[in-house]
Amino acid sequence: MSKGFFIDTTRCIACKACQVACKQWHNLPAEKTTNHGNYQNPPDFSHITYKLVRMNEEIIDGKLNWLFFPDQCRHCLIPPCLLWAQNSDAIYQDEDTGAVVYTSETRNLKAEDIIGACPYDVPRRDSSGMLNKCTMCNDRVKLGMEPACVKTCPTGTLNFGDLEHMHELANERFEKVRLTYPDARLLDPDDVRVIFLTAFAADKYHKYAKRWKSR
Amino acid sequence: MTNHWIDLKNSDCILVMGANPAENHPISFKYVMQAKDNGTRLICVDPRYTRTAAVADIYTPLRSGTDIAFLGGMIKYILDNELYQKTYVANYTNAQFIVNEQYGFKDGLFAGFDPEAKRYDRTKWAFETDTKGVPKRDVTLQHSRCVLQLLKAHYARYDLKTVSKITGTSQKSLLEVYKAFTATGTSSLAGTVMYAMGWTQHSKGVQNIRAMSIIQLLLGNMGLAGGGINALRGESNVQGSTDHALLFGSWPGYLKVPRDSDKSLAIYNRKNTPESNDPHSVNWWKNYAKYSVSFLKSMFGENATADNDFGYEWMPKCKDGRSYSWWRLFEAMWHGRIKGFFAWGMNPAASCGNVNIIRECLTRLDWMVHVNIFDTETSAFWHGPEMKPEEIKTEVFSLPACTWVEKEGSITNSGRWMQWRYIGPKPLGQSKSDGHILLELGAKLKALYAEGGKFAEPIRNLKWDYTTDGEFDPHKVAKEINGYFLEDVTIDGKIHKKGSLVPSFVHLHDNGRTSSGNWLYCNSYTEAGNQSARQGQRDAPNNIGNYPEFAWSWPLNRRIIYNRAAVDLKGQPWDSRHWVVRFDGQVNDGKYVGGNWAGDVIDGGGMPLQHPDGSENDNGRYPFIMRPQGVGQIYGPRLLDGPFPEHYEPLESPIAENFISSQRRNPLLRYAKKVDLPAQADSRFPIVCTTYRITEHWQTVTRSIPWNLELQPRVFVEMSHELADMKKIKTGERVLVENSRGKLECTAVVTHRFKPMKIVDQTVHQIGIPWHFGWRWPAGGSEGSVNVLVAAAVDPVSEIPEYKAFMVNLSKISQRMKP
Predict the structure, then answer these.
(1) What pLDDT does B819 receive?
(2) What is the C-alpha separation between B711 and B699, in angstroms, rounded?
(3) A15, B62, B567, B779 — which has fewest CB within 10 A?
(4) Which of A12, A23, A66 sits opposite B707 (nearest CB)?
(5) pLDDT band with cut points at 50, 70 and 90 for residue B670
(6) How confident is the model at residue B672, as a pLDDT?
(7) Considering CB atoms only, which of B26, B753, B819 is closest to A13?
(8) What's the mean pLDDT in B90-108?
(9) What is the tens place of the pLDDT at every residue in B392-429?
(10) B731 in A contact zone (CB under 8 Å)
(11) Which among B77, B105, B12 has a CA at the least distance from the CA of B214?
């Protein structure tokens, strides 16, 4: 069954449990970080950081907002990285779940081109040239479990299931949230299987939150 | 908590103040979000815009240390606009009680203040009573000395303008919060408060919470689902710790520790057993002796008999009027009166106030035993910054303890739910459970004292049989805590055999026939099994998330305490959407002739106060059964520092005077003058500093864990853009925060989430620093403990330090530190 996420950023409290759960499941080491003057760490995706809560202070209509965006690979319906790679040994799409999967063969690809092709600036290479990103916890999903990040999220920000159901949930929440936040929107719902709901324009959350420049 | 975590979802309005649950109790936000889904508004009041503020419907800042002014303004708003729940206030609180003529309040001081002794003579605050000792009432609530009128008079000074002046909060914001929260004064609505250290860690911490208790009683929110006073405990088992007498002044179950002047068990029991001649008052503490004697039987087993006062003489006594709180221990160490110290699962050299002094105290010890899961600033104090190991004679023993996943036992959460935990992986290396270490220690002491020693009886007579096959057995301890019948006892025709577990504390005796290590937990481990290990998934018929078959809560698996106040005088729920209890009565001729309570375990049994025909029910019972008069205390005659909360400035404050009285600080405030060196409107230290926790770390424990450190690698100070500009500080830069007690280097986080406040014509800046760090970890020592800056000034009742408001200065470090 084609799977998807619905991520309601209006419920996110930036606890970062999703970041840590992802690392625990994939046995990823911690990065050596420093404090750049804010709460966001690590500062960006890396070959060992697949899930990242972006945190931005934004003053909108004179009111302070602290916007949280638990960023990850979108597992696009038609993934630009896959199209660019043209190498199903390296990048393929799981027929069942729709997960966009990278293998160790990605080290034979030209990393800058793959990363450049991604509208969301997600994949990252390691020292061997291999590319890494969110796996949709495809190994868990195939066994009927939720992705690690979704399982751990306390507030219901992260949701996972059949893509159709995620669309229903997204639309339902969108209708509710826009009553409080008239500028609320779903980001690229027709192009991705990780659908974000934001209270404000995408660029307030992250330069690459949305596929096209917001109008 | 009077309520519990899941119950938050039932609330109609959630006030978060003195807490930051989105960051420090993130799981609770599952239920807060569910409440918001139902239209509940979340209000956040905090000097700093936090991750809780980020998802709040209403956020407003206040100056750290001014909570009583803020809440006092709300009390005045409720009274002026008559938003209090009238039936509830008249019948379930002491609003009608008349206070004696000697009571008074003037210019920041209550009647009976002795400035030399720094205490109040609380007899001046007593109620007027009839010949039976029952407080007199004025049912019209007009008497000038009835509690409601005294309340009005006291908070008359807390008008919007004055409150705004003190707190720095705009009048508009104050009104927005007051309007939203006080709407829950409607009988069918319930508002709740989530609070934590932001209220307790002040020199008037207890009174902060008192102020909210008054509000919740006025609004009729106590006892209701989605209501209550909800303390978010700082650790997952600190509720259990205080229940089982972690605090020096209590025996398990919040019995009182005996004093020198309590010369016998009879005197001790009599002193602590309140009397009430009001037939409607249950006065549950009248059972005190049953609990104290049962406790002594658990302590000394067969050695405790009626002939020796059940071993009362063997229990340690506190000197009259003396406190033995943490900072008194360190004071005693300083003066060489305490030579040995067990630092057990605690890291005072990083987490206590005035940490430089604490570290110096440790150098004066002969020995220290450190029991912990890792090497801390406390065990390693002797090679910390500025220490000269060659000059320190303290012998340090480090005993490795295993972690909570490596042992079996229970924890009790903030909601009073006791939950059993099973062993996961076996303890690493030679580490052992605390239970094991304690048992070995006790066994060794018993062996040594068997051969003699000063006052050996207590140790020799101690019941100490908690092993199975040589291993610590938590089940044996849990059962002892519950309690046993020590001989055959017949109750209601049923024989409870000797050696069987007592099913409920209502069956405990004061004559040695029963034991119970903690009367509150009697009912937790019975002949029906370990109640705390239950995992029943069914909710109760009232469907409010009580889940009575999951785990076990005290007392008697009651999930919402004071739930008798959740019904009207005839026993019918105020709020039918989320009913907690309900009296299903048999009615004859307009009168209840029988019936029982449906829903949660009813607080105190008995019948509703009124019959269906409105007449008084002789078998009716007041709801607040733990108070002698059975009603909630709007006026609190027994607290050390006043029957009504009053705003005082913290020990250290940016302004020269208290705007509301000439009494600048809490008159009972104690601090260590020579080492605290307080700054008052001192131009050297003009910035208000506060300390707190963040999601990414847990106490001082997680700094050595790479995945936590990745998220928050360095100690930091948050400050406004305005302050940073003034000091020419850039975000990410290392800066120095200091005062007369110490200095701390940290990373600047320049943010919109702090804003300068205008206090009259003075601009006051506030900054904040998390306290998770200390020189020991990460290795290298660059991330210090902010508690070098905090004074040891403490709340007079709880003796908790004022971590939340003190004065500092801030400056650039001339050279940028490499990360």
Answers:
(1) 47
(2) 15
(3) B779
(4) A23
(5) confident
(6) 83
(7) B26
(8) 98
(9) 999 999 999 999 999 999 999 999 999 999 999 999 99
(10) yes
(11) B77
Element (H or E) spanning A100, and its range? strand A100-102
- Total residue length of chain A: 215
CB B206 within 8 A of CB B795: yes
Hunting for tokens 């900054």 — which residue is that?
Answer: B767
Question: Letter for the amino acid at A70?
Answer: P
Cβ contacts (< 8 Å) between A12 and chain B: which residues? 55
Half-sphere exposure of B328 (CA within 13 A, CB side): 13
Pairing of β B395-400 and β B734-739:
unpaired
- Position A24 scores a pLDDT of 98
Q: Two tokens at B157?
A: 């000074």
Rounded CA-CA distance A154/A165 in Å is 20
- Please write the tens of the pLDDT for every residue from B342-379: 999 999 999 999 999 999 999 999 999 999 999 999 99
Q: Is B713 near chain A, with CB under 8 Å?
A: yes
In whole angstroms, give the CA distance from residue B457 to residue B312: 11
Q: For chain B, what is the radius of gyration of the CA atoms?
A: 27
Model confidence pTM above 0.95: yes
Q: Tell me, what amino acid is at B431?
A: S
pLDDT at B675: 83
Distances (CA, A) of A195 to A4, A19, A63, A192: 8, 18, 26, 7
pLDDT-derived band at B815, boundaries 50, 70, 90: low
What is d(CA B25, CA B6) in angstroms, rounded to the nearest whole number? 13
Q: Kindly indicate the confidence band of residue B243, based on its pLDDT and cuts at 50, 70 and 90.
A: very high
Say what the pLDDT of residue A213 is.
Answer: 55
Question: Which residues lie closer than 8 Å to B504 by C-beta, 6 or more apart?
Answer: B522, B523, B556
Question: Does any CB of chain A come closer than 8 Å to the CB of residue B707?
Answer: yes
CA distances, B808 to each of B388, B592, B673, B725, B744 (Å):
28, 64, 17, 18, 10
Which residues from chain A sit within 8 angstroms of residue B747, using beta carbons? 34-35, 37
Q: Hey, what are A185's tokens?
A: 């929107």
Percent of chain B with pLDDT over 90: 96
Name the percent of chain B lying above pLDDT 70: 99
Distance CA B44, CA B22 (A): 11
| Integer Cα distance of B482 and B516 in angstroms | 5
Spatial contact of B647 and B202, defined as CB atoms under 8 Å apart: no
Distance from CA of B722 to the nearest CA of A (A): 15
Report how far residue A77's alpha carbon sits from residue A211's, in angstroms, rounded to the nearest whole number: 13
B14, pLDDT greater than 60: yes
Identity (one letter) of the amino acid at B303? N
- Number of neighbouring beta carbons within 10 Å of residue B683: 7
**Residue B749 in contact with residue B731, Cβ under 8 Å?**
yes
Residue B310 has pLDDT above 80, yes or no: yes
Question: Cβ distance B335 to B685 under 8 Å?
Answer: no
* A100 in reach of chain B (CB within 8 A): no
Indicate if the alpha-carbon torsion angle B152, B212, B7, A153 is positive or negative: positive
State the pLDDT at residue B673.
83
| B160 in Cβ contact with B73 (< 8 Å) | yes
Distance from CA of B48 to the nearest CA of A (A): 12
User: Among B329, B248, B360, B206, which residue's Cα sits nearest to residue B669?
Assistant: B206
Q: Which residues of B touch A156 (CB under 8 A)?
A: 30, 33
Look at the block and give the residue holding tokens 């399982």: A151
Q: Which two tokens stand for residue B323?
A: 């406190």
Question: Cα–chain-centroid distance for residue B769?
Answer: 23
Q: Which residue has the tokens 């017949």?
A: B490
Asked if the C-beta of A42 comes within 8 angstroms of chain B's C-beta atoms, the answer is yes
Q: What is the mean pLDDT of chain B?
A: 96
